[in-house]
Amino acid sequence: LTSGQSAMVTHTTQTRIAATATSGWWVVVCTVVALVGQSGQTSATDRTMSHGHREVVVEVVETPLTPLEIPSNGKPQTQLLSTSPVRPLSSTSVGDTDDVGGETGAAASPQPTFGHAMLSEFMLANFTNLNHGSFGATPREVIDAQRRWIDRAEARPDDWFRRDYKDVLAGVRTRVAAMLDADDDDVTFVENASSAMNAVFRSLFWQPTDCILVLDTAYGMVKHTLAYIADMYGVEVIYVEVPVPLADDTLIDAAITAALEKHRGKKIRMASFSHITSVPALILPIERLARLCRENGVERVVVDGAHALGNIEVSMRQLDAAGIDFWVGNGHKWLYSPKGSAVLWVAPSAQGAIAPTVVSSEWVPGAFQQSFLYTGTRDYTPYVAIGDALDFRERLGPEEIMTYMRDLSAWATEHLVRVWGTEALAPAHMTAMSMGNVRVPTTDPEKAATLAKRVYDEHDIYIVVYRSGGDKWWLRLSAQIYLEKEDFVRAGEAVLDVLKN
């Protein structure tokens, strides 16, 4: 096709067509402009043809690109919106403390880097968000895509709920499973980690003689859910203390070993770990911990991976081999999908033991996929928009995103430790991700307790400050592709200013 032409194409489960091809410095982008029926086989109200395909009209648009915009790997990058191509920030520039605002050692390029140039891709107001880890920030193009899914659902509700949504989600599931090194059949979607963890804990038949093992760094939702389980069924919740500051992650192994030995003879039916804890923000050695538990008779292991999806590499095949039965990851934090989107992986051997928190009209005993696929009339567009979030990540480069966040977080941690004269909470390998922890320069509980609010009120910088390890208070920082070194420099100065005044 040449520019301006259109043609008929057919497809089965795809609901949005976006194809690219290169010719010199041109990229050809095909987008759906209309759905049409086939004469004699379909009516105006039902455009599905008898053989189950749909026909769409596509329009070809050519966009010129300069040679600098073609990546070295030869793969074209398509601009779906009026945004700029992105070149990742090198690890050298992140670690160079003399260069606060940009890169060093590289020739000047007309292409913008990750950093403030990316703010236009998001809907954040005029403030500095160093707390992406709590609620995330969904890119504009993903929100726009979700709105189109909502329009489609409202235009033909029966088509959407009875057929289209499920077809679309099947394709999204395949992509997510590939990202997680998992089988499609073992992956499903839920609203958030809270929903998934509740589904796991509340699906089991508990007895008063049962015990649940959990670290004291577990997220508040997990602690509250376990308190509910204990109150309802009389189970014992065994909390294992994580020493803070943490010199090495093997100390966690030692703490778990000691707890298992102390409670030997009790029926520990489940152990619950965070893949990445919330506060303090730490990557836990979950494979080692899971093996340790299973070797000592623990029946099931569940992992709260709320902060892991899109933040670090995850392989479900490896987690399965380590003895992990359940894993959940939020999409709205580091994957860039809308709020209300999360992924639940369940080992095949455990799928018959879990049901969604809402049992709907399509629930079937033991049918893992079907039971989670439809949980009543609700908005499922956050689930299908995970596919659009993956498109956003692919456009920028998933590895480049994670590398930038990891390197910026490491630089920010080192910088704040130096200017505050304090310490990092854990070794670097436990924070090799988008988040870090630095002790704030005060032990005054009154000053520390109001520090985050005052920094936000007086400097328009949102930070998280928490207490851990006795009288020590810590800053949890979140790096993101729309942030730069300068933001953490200003945050460090703002904290000092507030504490001084």
Account of the 3D structure:
The chain has 501 residues and is α/β, with parallel strands linked by helices. The chain has helices at residues 91-95, 132-135, 140-155, 157-179, 193-203, 220-233, 250-262, 286-295, 316-322, 368-373, 381-384, 386-396, 398-420, 445-459, 485-500, and strands at 6-11, 18-23, 26-36, 54-64, 128-129, 187-190, 210-215, 236-240, 267-274, 300-304, 326-330, 342-346, 435-439, 461-462, 464-467, 473-478. The strands form four sheets. Strands 6-12-11-10-9-7-8 form a seven-stranded mixed sheet, with helices on both faces. A four-stranded antiparallel sheet has the order 1-4-3-2, with no helix packed on it. A three-stranded antiparallel sheet has the order 13-16-15, with helices on one face. β7 (210-215), α6 and β8 form a beta-alpha-beta unit. α3 runs antiparallel to α12 and α14 crosses α15 (485-500). The chain is globular and about 60 Å long. The protein starts with 5 loop residues before the first strand and ends with a helix. Mean pLDDT is 84; it is low at 1-112.
Biggest β-sheet description: 7 strands, mixed
Number of strands: 16
Radius of gyration: 25 Å
Class computed from helices, strands and strand pairing: alpha/beta
Low-confidence stretches: 1-112
Number of helices: 15
> What integer is the average pLDDT?
84
Q: Tell me the helix content.
A: 25-40%
The outline comes out as globular
As a percent range, the share of strand residues is 15-25%
Across the major sheet, the strand order is 6-12-11-10-9-7-8
For the termini, the CA-CA separation is 67 Å
